[in-house]
Amino acid sequence: MYQLARSILFRFDPETAHHISMSGLRLAEKTRLLPLLFPEPECISPVEVMGLRFPNRIGLAAGLDKEGDAIDALGCLGFGHIEIGTITPRPQPGNPRPRLFRLIPQQSIINRMGFNNSGIESGVANVLRSKHFHGVIGFNIGKNKDTPNENAADDYLICLRAAFPVAGYIAVNLSSPNTPGLRELQGAEAAARLLDVLKHEQTKLEAEHERKVPLVFKVAPDLDDAHIDALSRVFLDGGLDGLIATNTTLSRSGVEDHPRHGEAGGLSGPPLLARSTEVLARFASHLGGRIPIIGVGGISSVEDAKEKIRAGASLVQIYTSFIYQGPALVAALARAL
Ligand SMILES: Cc1cc2nc3c(=O)[nH]c(=O)nc-3n(C[C@H](O)[C@H](O)[C@H](O)COP(=O)(O)O)c2cc1C
Q1: Fewest beta carbons less than 10 Å away: which of 132, 182, 217, 295?
Q2: Which band of pLDDT confidence, cut at 50, 70 and 90, is reported for residue 261?
Q3: What are phi and psi of 305, to 5 degrees?
Q4: CA angle (269, 275, 279) in 5-degree steps
Q5: From the alpha carbon of 321, which atom of ligand 1 is closest?
């Protein structure tokens, strides 16, 4: 059935197709059609990671439900966790269109969305409105485009404070290639400073709200080994609660033949798998289980997901393969892992 839906959706430009799908999903959930089609969300082998109970190991990566307005609908499809965002303190339109491109032969995507979102308050309100999802909701937070890097911590703090009462975990996005300068925050010194400020605030918020909300950093796949080694030390010293490896890549390896390969933005899907898993494995070798890792990047089969787990991931996420393969993949992954 998804193949039929996909063949219709892929006639539209990718962003229009995205909006149609999200509206369709929300409608199907509201009219209770989705729960009828997917009667038992996958709660096959619950796992505890970062002190949170996840119904299964498979999650939806950030970027698909930027605002958190389809959590219940996406939850029906079997995700054990849904990461909403990236959300910034203030609403912003993102980059001009077109900014999303399908590379169909490679089952991949290039995007330069640029954190289009309606702001943290709206994300929080949407999460409060969601009623049926029993998995974990992650809040992926970022800085506004017009906030200079010197003040980036202020933006993350605004989002952390707003999301804290309702988030399962908070993911600090340092790795989008589509906000100029953002990846500089992954420099070891910059990351250490930011982690220190955010951990400090997290401790205060935990006392205030009497609940623990793990703090997770999301990194790029385009880090060299020395950089990974330095960041691992920063994360261990700073008491980071979790790591997401990885975001999209600037590399075009594997898609050089596609006419769209020169579009600016981050590449996702199978061409990203090998490098993303290498980065994950190198982080895992340093972190030695002390900081759990969520593996994301290029997973398009059960075998790919198992490879992430073997490389050291406790949980995995998908985005691009969900667009190409639909809900059947979520169920297969939830069952297999
Ligand atoms: C269209 C699109 C938008 C994305 N937006 C975000 C985002 O806002 N924040 C973020 O941290 N990652 C974002 N990502 C990256 C994904 O969360 C994920 O890390 C990446 O796509 C690799 O996984 P995949 O190969 O399964 O897609 C986006 C990816 C795509 C394809």
Answers
A1: 132
A2: very high
A3: -65, -40
A4: 120
A5: 26
State whether the beta carbon of 173 lies less than 6 angstroms from ligand 1: yes
CB 170 within 8 A of CB 141: yes
Count CA atoms closer than 13 A to 12's CA, side-chain side: 12
Q: Give the span between the Cα atoms of 114 and 215, in whole angstroms.
A: 23
Tell me, rounded to whole angstroms, the distance of Cα 262 from its chain centroid: 24
**Does ligand 1 come within 6 angstroms of the Cβ of 140?**
yes
Q: How far is the CA of 183 from the centre of ligand 1 (A)?
A: 15
How far CA 319 is from CA of 30, 177, 306, in Å, comes to 23, 17, 16
The residue whose two tokens read 């406790």 is 314
For the entire predicted model, the pTM comes to 0.98
**pLDDT for 39 beyond 80:** no
DSSP conformation letters of 153-197: HHHHHHHHHHHTTT-SEEEEE---TTSTTGGGGGSHHHHHHHHHH
Q: Is 176 part of the annotated catalytic residue set?
A: yes
Residues 197-216, mean pLDDT to the nearest whole number: 98
pLDDT, average across residues 241-255: 98
